Amino acid sequence: MAKMYYEKDCDLNQLNGKKIAIVGYGSQGHAHALNLRDSGCDVIIGLRKGGKSWPVAEKDGFQVYPVAEATKAADIIMILINDENQAEMYQKDIAPYLTAGKAIAFAHGFNIRYQQIQPPADVDVFMAAPKGPGHTVRSQYVAGKGVPCLVAVEQNATGKAYDIALAYIAGIGGARAGVMETTFHDETETDLFGEQAVLCGGVVELMKLGFETLVEAGYEPENAYFECIHEMKLIIDLINKGGVAMMNYSISDTAEYGEYVSGSRILPYEQTKANMKAVLNDIQDGTFAGKWIAENKNGRTFFNSKRALLAKHPMETVGAELRKNMLWGDDADPDTASN
């Protein structure tokens, strides 16, 4: 079993006297920064001058600097901007000021795994990766809980990289839930696979096809939305709490029987497994990374067209109207999405 760490294994004092620069103030960035500050850490924010997040971070009470200045001032630099923008910013604003003994950190291993970023040998390189969206990292921390995290160390130049990484994770609340040790290599490949095959690619396609099948058969789109999309959260919350067994305990025997007789008809075992292995192979050999890097260099034509098509899909438009008419429909705050 993978090695696990908890609050008793983490010493926040390892961060005493260290200035932490959070680069980026989006979903993960705001959560890390606010949680670390609430844990008593010295936090500054590094952003692109004139970016829309600058006034947001200032409003939240942080000192905000251009990335290069934040890197110069900080002992730990956590990069929390989008994967596709990290390499360029690193080369321009971080690498020239990444002096010996500092630490550079990531919440996802993409740019280290695929060598888009290659830090010098005299700095620590670690990962503190919450297994949930940034808004959940924040809301769970505020509630006195935490989101489970992964920890990995790629370079241990100072000999204290693991201590620093675990302290950082404790600071964002992850040690309250549990911290699992991994590597940049394994985190990157399993994370990409999970997103593509199950959590995002797989689940969204499954919901969309279910919705379309019911609507094309003549059922009301609103009914199709509730049955194939809205209830997904209720099912996943049960699985998250007690596994598939708890979900099956909580649903009807009719539903459980349907699970056994129809699940493999929807996702034929051998073909689905073969398709998943093909996706994993593309991740392992760098094919996916190469396509994504090229997509960003070439104007994101495919990406943007797919996003535009999804926005127009009845699954999205019907869902938006339904949510407006529900008692909870005026709650558009992602910080409460897991509550």
Automatic annotation (TrEMBL):
Q: What are the recorded Gene Ontology BP terms?
A: isoleucine biosynthetic process; L-valine biosynthetic process
Q: How is the cofactor bound?
A: Binds 2 magnesium ions per subunit.
The main enzyme category here is: oxidoreductase
Task: State where Mg(2+) 1 binds.
Answer: D191, E195
What cofactors does the UniProt entry give for this protein? Mg(2+)
**What is the role of this chain?**
Involved in the biosynthesis of branched-chain amino acids (BCAA). Catalyzes an alkyl-migration followed by a ketol-acid reduction of (S)-2-acetolactate (S2AL) to yield (R)-2,3-dihydroxy-isovalerate. In the isomerase reaction, S2AL is rearranged via a Mg-dependent methyl migration to produce 3-hydroxy-3-methyl-2-ketobutyrate (HMKB). In the reductase reaction, this 2-ketoacid undergoes a metal-dependent reduction by NADPH to yield (R)-2,3-dihydroxy-isovalerate.
Q: What is this protein called?
A: Ketol-acid reductoisomerase (NADP(+))
